Amino acid sequence: MSSNMMMRVMLIAIAVCAVLYILLTINIRKKRSLSPIKSTKRSLKGIYWLYRFFSQTPVLKRYYAKIKTFLEINYPADEMSIKRKATLTTAKCVGAALLLIVFVISISGGDWFYICMGCFMSYFIFTYFITAAQESLDKKLLNQLGDFITNIRHHYSVAGNVEDAIYDTLDETPYEMGLHATKIYKMLTATNVEHEVDKYTDIAPNKFILTMVAICATIKEYGDKTLDDGQSLFLTNINYLKEEINVELIKRRRNAFLFSGLITLTLLPLFFLKAIEAWGISNIPEMTRFYAGPAGTTVMAGIFVITVIVYQLIANLKDGHVDDEREHKIIGWLLTVPYINKFVTLEINRHYTKHLRIDDGLKMVGDRIGVKGFLVKRVLFGLLAVLLINLVIFTAEWRTKYNLLNDFKTTFESSIVPDEEYREAMREAAVEYTLSSRNLPDTPENRQMVQAQIEKKGISPKFSEQVTSEVFTRIAKYRDVYYRWWFLLINILGYLAGYYLPYLILQYKLRIVKMDMEDEVIQYQTIVLILMHVDGMLVDTVLDWLERFSFCFRQSIQECIINLEYSTSKALQKMKNQETFPPFRRFVDNLLMVEEEDILTAFSEIETDREYYKEKRKTDNEIISTQKAEVGKIVAFIPLILTLIIYMIVPFALYSMEMMKSIGM
């Protein structure tokens, strides 16, 4: 009864928090115009209170800072507007997570293990909503950039210079893009344009706006000129950029369509485990033994772990590679411990070639953890797996012991008793004497003593014997629940699984990155198309711009830039030898030709075959998106299939086999 009361209090408290969240944000507009938003004092106080709460709460302040940093780059308004938008975005994500926790608690039936799992999944949902909010703003900005380029083309034809064209476009540019357009205008009208562009490069929200800055700055520095086809160099370059933006938008829309519903399909089964359990027990009460026992706990934990893994896999497939610049503070701190650092160094030296390949893989997927940190991460994952396994074991044992001592709901169902009140009296006696007699040895004397005490409660000898038998049967099962020796074998297997999981995830990410390699090379060709008509363009300048847009080949390009000061041709040849991807090697061959001829001649084939590469890129994007979606659809069904088979069908099958065995079939 106290457990149920505590559950209700928790449910009410969380519901109150959710209601407060709704009341504080219900009147806030989702969209903003260029003019400032007028807010009431009450709403401002509410937002300020949320800001203080999010920026000071230990767990939430990390995500609030992440959202704020993202907005400072993508939404470069004044400090107050950024904090306001970051607070509201965080509030929406927290509110969604709180409502989900309320739902989990309401269906949990007091199962703390399930509540803990639900809270973990609410955390993943919380991070998913943050990512979705960031993607939404990024997509909005990209759409506005496309319209901005269209407007600039018109105004450039009238004004004749870049900065005036941008200034004339500001009044008709949407608010978000207008903030960046204003920054670009200030850069172009600054005394030292190159210095301002270098500063902006580090904080550019995406590569397309960065390309726009590069085009404008190049024209500002070198001037515009008319190409052989009679077109302006500036207008030709922004046309190339507009095509790139359109390709990216089509790619994102296709990905969004192909992956729509997969995250929901992955997470949904976990939130209906209790509904399945309640349905099974309502039809066959004896199935309580499975769901409340160690088997049910183990299956529930297994479905939870697999759901988390599948969720991460689908997120990686959908979003592609993400340059992970996290500091890995815990791992970094562990590596400062001399004994740990020494052990890691010795282990890496023992298998140097293998760890060298791992290091290359980490660089390719953009993970800056380093090979030492990655090894520590693998060990931590192994230890975490052992901890999780033991948590499941001890939870299952606790639930089994608790149910043996307290759960008598389906007991004595087959007994022919005078009425239901009599059956309930038998159950109450069984609960009382199971609890009080659990330390008694199972001897005839003790059985007689317990039976006599039960008879004093008004239960006849015939039924008191049944109660006594049930009491000592449960006590025997209670004593049989302990930590088995073969649990150690499960721990060893769990450690190995956890240890190899980061490595398998790395291989999985590498496969995704390799799918995008050709697309990245075609992006390099577009950058060259933009730069090739600029007089005096050198290899080092081209490489600087390629490095800003690189991901798969970033490490090789960065090393090449460092080696340029010794010999350009040797640096390029070394970069070519390091990479095995044929399209990239052919691209480097063109860069090598720049040493002997000008860049226009070296890359003339790119301009000639531009239409072919554009169509090929569209086709390749469709193929890659389809391949990823097919893998995602297969993987997304795993939690659902496991839930239906292991958590719903298997208990029924086991019960049927038990019944057939009991009747001698």
- From the spread of the alpha carbons, the general shape counts as elongated
- In terms of per-residue confidence, which ranges show pLDDT below 50 for 5 or more consecutive residues? 25-39, 322-327
User: How many whole angstroms does the radius of gyration measure?
Assistant: 33 Å
- Give the topology string: H per helix, E per strand: HHHHHHHHHHHHHHHHHHHHHHHHHHHHHH
Keywords: Membrane, Plasmid, Transmembrane, Transmembrane helix
Transmembrane segments: 6-28, 86-106, 112-131, 256-276, 288-311, 379-396, 485-506, 634-655
Describe this entry's structure for a reader:
78% of the residues lie in helices and 0% in strands. It has a domain at 399-479. It has 665 residues and is mainly alpha-helical.
Reconstruct the topology from this structure.
Blueprint: H1 2-25, H2 41-56, H3 60-74, H4 79-108, H5 112-159, H6 162-169, H7 175-188, H8 193-201, H9 207-222, H10 233-258, H11 262-267, H12 273-283, H13 288-291, H14 294-319, H15 329-335, H16 338-350, H17 352-365, H18 370-406, H19 420-436, H20 444-455, H21 461-479, H22 487-515, H23 517-531, H24 539-549, H25 554-563, H26 568-578, H27 582-593, H28 599-602, H29 604-608, H30 610-662
Features:
transmembrane helix, elongated, membrane, 30 helices, 665 residues, mainly alpha, transmembrane, plasmid
Short recap of the structure:
The protein has 665 residues and is an all-alpha fold.
